Amino acid sequence: MTVAKKYDVALLGAGFGASLLAAILSKQGLKVCMIDRESHPRFSIGESSTPAADMILPRLCETYGLDELMPFCRFGSWRSSHPEIGCGCKRGFSYFWHGAGGEYQATENHQNEMLVAASSSRSVADTQWFRADVDHFVCDYAVRCGTDYFSQTNVVSISHQADFDWEVALSAQEKLSSIQTDFLVDATGPAAILLNHLQIEDETCRLKTNTSAVYSHFKEVPKAAEWLQNYRTNQTDFPYPVDDSAIHQVFNDGWLWQLRFENGVCSIGYVSNHDSDAPSKTDVSWDDLLKEKPVLKEILGSASVSHIPGKIYKTKRLQRLREQAAGRDWAALPFTAGFIYPLHSTGIAHTLLGVERLAAMFTRFNIISIEDELSSYSERTLNELRHIDHMVSLCYDNLHRFPRFRAACMIYFAAATTFEKTYLQGADGFLCAGDLAFQTILNEASMVMSASSNLSRSTERGPDPAVDAMRGLIEPYNHVGLFHPQKPNMYFHTAATKE
Ligand SMILES: Cc1cc2nc3c(=O)[nH]c(=O)nc-3n(C[C@H](O)[C@H](O)[C@H](O)COP(=O)(O)OP(=O)(O)OC[C@H]3O[C@@H](n4cnc5c(N)ncnc54)[C@H](O)[C@@H]3O)c2cc1C
Question: Quick check: 16 and 134 in contact, CB under 8 A?
C-alpha cells in the first residue's frame, strides 16, 4: 500500500451532486476527492429539472463563481453554449388520463388532460438532463477546479481513527490504496455505502408511497403531438408544444413518463403503484406492461431501446428513507438519505439544495465546528423527504379519479410555486416542508380525500366536494391561479419570472 493522501473532504460517488459539491469546495481552497465505482460517461436516470432546480443552480453559480455551469440553468443558453451535451426542453408538466378502462379520450373541455406551464418560452425553459453527458461534464469540471477523482474504484473499508478522522481503503484494478479525510460525504445514492457502514436505521416502512418502475432510453419514439392528433385532441389550447414537457400518461394503477431529448433519445418509464404495506417487489415486466396496456404500443410506435443503456431496468420499491442524514463529521446527499418521487420531479432540485446547504456550511464555518449545522441539515433533509412522501402519496391514492388526482397535484404546485416565490428571499424549507400552516393544510387535504374516498367518481359528473374543499384549502398558497385556469385544465402562467 502507498502512503495515504490526506483530504479535507472525500465524497463517495461522483454523480452530478457529488461533482458539484466537490467543484465548489475545491474552488474554496479545500482539498477534495471523489471516489466512484464507475466511470463517466455512464447511464443514469433522474433527468427532469424544475423551476426550483433552475433557481438553485444559478444561485450556486453566482455565489461560488461557477461560470462554466451557468448556461445549464436555461434551455436556450444550454443549447447555444453546449449543444454537444444532451438535453431536452421542458416547458411544463403534462398529464393525460387513461380512464377506468385504460382508454384516453379527448373531450372539448380537456377533462382528461392537465398541462401546467412552468416557463414562458423555449429560451428560458427548464431542461431534461441527459445524465450521461451532464454528470460527465460536471465531474470533469470538478477535476478542473482541483478535485482528485478516483474512478472505477471500489471502497474496500471505511474506518474511524483516533489521530485523524476517516481512513477509506480503496481498490482499483486489483491495486490497493487508501485516503484519509476529515469529513466524508455519502453521495452514492441507493448504495448508501457510508450509511450502511454506520448502520444508520432504515425507516422506509414509515413511508406511505410504494412504487416500483421499469424504464430505459428509447430511440425513434413518435412525437406525443402526433399520438394526440389521432385522438383529435385540441392542442391549440395547450400552453406549449406538448413534446417540450415532462409527459405523464396516468393510469389507474400507475403512470408512464416520457422525456424527450434533442439528440433523438426519449426517456420512458412506467411507475407501478402498490399498497403502502405491500411487500417490496419487482412486479411488472416491460412485456407484461405492453400486453396489459395496448395504448403503450401506440405511444411507442416502432421505438426501440437505445444502445446505451441497451436494456430495460426493473426496480423493486423505489422509496427508501434513513433515520439520519448527517453526523459529527459526515453527511449524506438527499438522494442517498432517501428517495420518494419520481412523480413531480423533485430529485434534482432537492439534490441541488443539499449541495447548497453543505457548501454554505463548509465555507462559513471551520469543518470541525459544524456539528450543530449538520444536525439541522439532517433534520431538514429527512423532514423534506417525509413531506414529499405525503404530497406524492396523495396523488397516487387518487390515480383512479382524475379530478382528484389533479386536485392533489395542485397541492404540490402550490408548494412548488410558493417555494419558487420565497426561495430567493431566504425561505429555506424545500416545497414548504418547514411551514406549519402548510402542513396543516396537507393533513386536512388527506383527511378530506380519505373521508370521501368511497365515492366512486371515475369521470367528472358535476362538482366533487373533495375537489372544492382542496381548492379552498390551498387558497393562502395559491399565487398563480391554481384551480382557476383560463381554459379548463390548461395553466399558462404558473412560472416564476426568469427573463
Ligand atoms: C426512477 C427514477 C426517476 C427519477 N426521476 C427524476 C426526475 O425526473 N427528476 C428529478 O429531479 N429527479 C429524478 N430522480 C432523482 C434523481 O435521480 C436524483 O435526485 C439524482 O440522481 C441524485 O444525484 P446524485 O449525484 O446525488 O446521485 P447519483 O446520480 O445516483 O450518483 C451516485 C453515484 O454513486 C456511485 N456509486 C454507487 N455505489 C457506489 C459504491 N459502492 N462506491 C462508489 N461509488 C458508488 C454511482 O456510480 C454514481 O455515480 C429519479 C430517480 C429515480 C430512481
Answer: yes
Q: Which residue do the cell numbers 455505502 mark? A: 193
Distance of alpha carbon 216 from alpha carbon 306, whole angstroms: 8
Q: Distance from the CA of 481 to the center of ligand 1, in angstroms?
A: 34
Atom 49 (ligand 1) nearest CA: 15
* CA-246 nearest atom, ligand 1: 8
Catalogue all structural domains in the chain, each as residue range(s) with its CATH number.
5-80+130-204+326-368 (3.50.50.60), 88-128+208-314 (3.30.9.100), 398-499 (no CATH)
Q: Which residue in 275, 390, 400, 413 sits closest to 344, CA to CA?
A: 413
Contact criterion met (CB below 8 Å) for 51 and 126: yes
Per-residue pLDDT of the chain (499 residues; tens, 9 = 90+): 567 899 999 999 999 999 999 999 999 999 999 999 999 999 999 999 999 999 999 999 999 999 999 999 999 999 999 999 999 999 999 999 998 777 899 999 999 999 999 999 999 999 999 999 999 999 999 999 999 999 999 999 999 977 668 999 999 999 999 999 999 999 999 999 999 999 999 999 999 999 999 999 999 999 999 999 999 999 999 999 999 999 999 999 999 999 999 999 999 999 999 976 665 555 678 998 999 999 999 999 999 999 999 999 999 999 999 999 999 999 999 999 999 988 889 999 999 999 999 999 998 876 666 888 999 999 999 999 999 999 999 999 999 999 999 999 999 999 999 999 999 888 879 999 999 999 999 999 999 998 876 655 444 456 799 999 999 999 999 999 999 998 999 999 776 555 4
Atom of ligand 1 nearest to the CA of 350: 19
For the Cβ of 186 lying below 6 angstroms from any atom of ligand 1, the answer is no
297: which strand partners?
Answer: none
This prediction has a pTM of 0.96
420 within ligand 1 shell (Cβ under 6 A): no
